[in-house]
Amino acid sequence: MQIAIDGPSSAGKSTVAKKVAQKLGFIYCDTGAMYRAATVLAKENGIDYGDEEQILAKLSQSEISFKPSEKGQLVFLNDEDVTLAIRTPEITNNVSQVSALPKIREELVRQQRKIAGDHDIVMDGRDIGTTVLPNAEVKVFLIASASERARRRYDENIQKGIMTPLAKLQEEIEIRDYKDSHREISPLTKATDASEIDSTNLSIQQVVDKIVELANNAR
Questions:
Q1: Binding-site annotation, residues for ATP
Q2: Do the Cβ atoms of 58 and 42 come closer than 8 Å?
Q3: Is 161 left (phi over 0), alpha (psi -120 to 50) or beta?
Q4: Quick check: is 156 in a domain?
Q5: Looking at 58-184, which runs of residues are DSSP E strands?
Q6: Is the dihedral of CA 99, 101, 102, 106 positive or negative?
Q7: Do β-strands 138-143 and 27-30 pair in parallel, antiparallel, or remain unpaired?
Q8: What distance in Å separates the CA atoms of residue 154 and residue 166, rounded to the nearest whole number?
Q9: Between vectors from CA 201 to CA 219 and to CA 167, what angle results, nearest 5°?
Q10: Which domain holds residue 100?
Q11: Which DSSP letter does residue 121 get?
Q12: In angstroms, rounded to a whole number, what is the distance separating the alpha carbons of residues 204 and 87?
C-alpha cells in the first residue's frame, strides 16, 4: 500500500507521516529531507543553488539514506549525518530553488519510486499524490494556517538552538508557499482525489488517527 501526504511547509507532514508509518508498520520516506540534502550538497561544494548540471553531477555520485536512532530518523549524505544541517535557515530558504530544478526532481523521484516499489510506504512532500505516486491508495493534503505553521517551526528551532524571530519565520513560510505553488515543475497542489485535513486546531494524534482510518478503509 502507498500513502501519499502532501501539503505546504511546516504543516506537520513529516511528523504525522512518521507516526502513521509506525502505527501501520510501513516504511517512511521523507522526500523533503532528500531535497534538503541535495541543497546541502550544493552548499558544501560551493555550487550555485540554480546550477542544475553541477548539482546533478554531485547528486549522481552521492547517496541519500535514512537511519533510525533513539532520537528519531537520521538523514545521511553519503557517510555524513546532515540531520541538523538540512534544517538550518540557509537550506530552508534555498531548497525551493533546488527542488524546482527539473533534472534534480527527476533523479530524486526515480529514487523515491524505487523505494515505494519495494515496500508498503508512507511518503510525504509537495507532489507525492500528483507526480511521484499518482496511483497511491491513500492521498492526504495536509494544511494549517501560516501563523500556526510559523509557531510550530519557531518551537522546533528553539529546541535546536536556532534563534529566528517568529514574524520572520511566518514571512519565510509565506514566501516558500508562493514559490512551491508557482514553480513550473510539479507545483504544490492538491490531488483531485486527495482528502484535505486542516491541522491548525488538531493535535498530531488526531491527524494520525484520521489518516490511519483512511488507510484501513482503503484495504
A1: 7-15
A2: yes
A3: left
A4: yes
A5: 64-67, 74-77, 80-81, 121-125, 138-143
A6: negative
A7: unpaired
A8: 6
A9: 125
A10: 2-205
A11: E
A12: 21
136 within a domain of the structure (yes/no): yes
Grid coordinates of 78: 553519503
Quote the DSSP letter at residue 16.
H
What's the whole-model pTM score? 0.78
Contact 193, 134 (CB under 8 A): no
Question: Which has the closest alpha carbon to 19: 10, 8, 30?
Answer: 30
Give tens-digit pLDDT for 100-142.
Answer: 999 999 999 988 898 888 889 999 988 899 999 999 999 999 9
Structural domains counted in the chain: 1
Q: Let me know if residue 218 belongs to a domain.
A: no
What lies within 8 Å, CB to CB, of 46 at 6+ separation is none
Q: Which residues are annotated as a binding site?
A: 7-15
3-state DSSP assignment of residue 7:
coil
- Tell me, what CATH number does 132's domain have? 3.40.50.300
Cell of 18: 512518521
Amino acid at 124: D
205 three-state secondary structure: helix
Q: Is residue 219 part of a domain?
A: no
